[in-house]
Amino acid sequence: MRPHLSRSKRLRLSLLSVFAAIALARVHAPIQLSAQVDPLPAWNEGAARTAIMAFVQATTDPASKDFVPPPDRIATFDQDGTLWVEHPMYTQVVYCLDRVPALVRAKPQLANTEPFKTVLTGNLEAVARLPVPELQKILVATLTGMSVDQFQTQVKLWIDSARDRRWKRPYTDLKYEPMIEVLNFMRAKGYRTYIVTGGGQDFVRVFADKAYGIPPEQVVGTASGTKFEYGENGEPYLLKAPKLLLNDNNAGKPEGIHLMIGRQPHAAFCNSTGDRQMLEYTKAGKGRRLAVLILHDDATREYAYGPAQGLPETRVGVFPQALYDEAKKGGWVVVSMKNDWKRIFAFEP
Amino acid sequence: MRPHLSRSKRLRLSLLSVFAAIALARVHAPIQLSAQVDPLPAWNEGAARTAIMAFVQATTDPASKDFVPPPDRIATFDQDGTLWVEHPMYTQVVYCLDRVPALVRAKPQLANTEPFKTVLTGNLEAVARLPVPELQKILVATLTGMSVDQFQTQVKLWIDSARDRRWKRPYTDLKYEPMIEVLNFMRAKGYRTYIVTGGGQDFVRVFADKAYGIPPEQVVGTASGTKFEYGENGEPYLLKAPKLLLNDNNAGKPEGIHLMIGRQPHAAFCNSTGDRQMLEYTKAGKGRRLAVLILHDDATREYAYGPAQGLPETRVGVFPQALYDEAKKGGWVVVSMKNDWKRIFAFEP
């Protein structure tokens, strides 16, 4: 087994922040928005909206000098913090912790074995104090060792039933309406939209089609290997193996894009330092390119963290001042959730 | 660097067979075939043609019990020996050997260093006798160590100018016309066609779109990792690293399909023992599935090898009797190139 440090570090960091202020928000029925006239109705007028619209117009108009032929129209989207809420804890980490009781039911001896013993106490502060190799065991035990089919079934059951703590809603309700509009708008203009996530590729594939309209083959994520095996009756299946194939964070994002897509994206939408290389790679391509950084600066409607308005960074979605400076210097588009998004969630009034 | 045994073994085996009978064939101008009425005009009437047509009809007719929704219509195709000629030596191996002189011009000290010294003699029998680790050095030196862009440029120049020894034609002319018809037919019926090759993913991506109508993101192959780097002026690029990410042979084929596509194919077209697990994986899916094995049994128009008519196996495209037996037992479709293909190449009269 190869080390799995980066995700574990993220796990640990995110666990450390699990006690961040969690406020209950009002729960409302979803409202369908018509996009027949304005493709981005959840966006306020402003520089960010204008830049996105102008980019899509220029790259899809055959008369434009910036025209991009349809096969090259690739747009990549980070998931956590870009398409849905990542605060106070990555959703996949919640999944892994939630899986532990079932794991212990199947193997009762784990109840007295670390790190599972600590997880079962429900004391997340104690969980966060576990050494990294112990935290890795939780990931390995909950994300590998089963067939691909079994894993997909487990995740599907969970994603359909689990509720987040703040909004008391399915996690897939916590997708950002303005970003769903961007996905739909760009697809309508001939772009193929890919998720490029530090999260697990197999995890995100389970719900990406339903949640975002993104099919499995357009989800690039951190991937463990699989092992082709034969079952009791000789039937072949793929076993999820505890072997890291692709750590889809930082430099792993452009590397994963090359492996899985083989084309340099024309647009990338992101929100944290783990996306830096993907944004740089996107902007480095010839012709007009779009790099978008989303700033979490809305403490009321979502969360505020990062370098905006002098807010302290959190441990999730790290966004240091240096990234902000690079964005400004490199002509990246910085989106303020507070100012640029009229509506954040579809369920808002 | 991780070991690269399987491809090197294949390289060695293919080099051993490089002196297999090479006969010159007539060279004729390409003829355009109309497929307006019959989608498979290069196929003779017979069980194989009927089975392929019936499968496509049944899985794309909404009234059929075997109907497959468009997003799930995935068909995978091995390349060497399935879409184009693999005998007497894999085309990519020819490329690697052809690159050695340029390599030595760039680094003259290599001229007196093995294995490059032996390759420069042009004595392929001697090349074939080199130990496997030495042969690996040729692969590493010619397939890694340059940027992705540089590699693509090198392969493109080569594929446009190199000629095979028997037909004196570009290698991409040696694609099988009946298989091009199958690709076009299935795509017209809503299938997405993927190459799943033991050959190099980056190598095949350079010409797959032009040769087969298959875009880079639909080429799954043996893949080395890349490394995100910055050039002299700070510009980001991807360096091809000597690290094997995916050995897309044998069990690596279904594993690669899961990594890159995330769906079980409904149809797979193959020709050798390295495809066995992909065929089994395809057939193991629910509903109607199609597994096709192509038998190289036409010594006159192409090559004859494998278990047909008691022919000895060659070192390329290994196809033992056991695979033939599994095909017969498992309801796979076996295609005889001699009997089922009216025309093998587009350039035939």
Explain what you see.
The structure is a homodimer of 349-residue chains. Chain A is α/β, with parallel strands linked by helices and 349 residues long. Helices cover 39% and strands 14% of the residues of chain A. The first copy, chain A, has 13 helices and seven strands. Chain A has a seven-stranded mixed beta sheet with strand order 4-3-2-1-5-6-7, sandwiched between helices. The first copy, chain A, is globular and about 65 Å long. Chains A and B meet through helix 9, strand 3, strand 4, helix 10 and helix 11 of A and helix 9, strand 3, strand 4, helix 10 and helix 11 of B.
**What is the structural class of chain A?**
alpha/beta
Tell me the number of helical segments of chain A per DSSP (H or I, 4 or more residues long).
13
Q: Could you spell the SSE succession of chain A in H and E letters?
A: HHEHHHHHHEHEEHEHEHEH
Please give the order of strands in the largest beta sheet of chain A: 4-3-2-1-5-6-7
Distance from N terminus to C terminus of chain A (CA atoms, Å) equals 49 Å
Q: How many strands, what sense, and barrel or not for the largest sheet of chain A? A: 7 strands, mixed
Helical fraction of chain A:
25-40%
Bin the strand percentage of chain A: 5-15%
Count of individual beta strands of chain A? 7
Mean pLDDT of chain A: 89
Q: Segments of chain A where pLDDT lies below 50 for 5+ residues?
A: 1-35
- Oligomer state equals homodimer
Largest interface: A-B, 34 and 34 residues
Shape, per Cα inertia axes of chain A: globular
Could you tell me the radius of gyration of chain A in angstroms? Answer: 20 Å
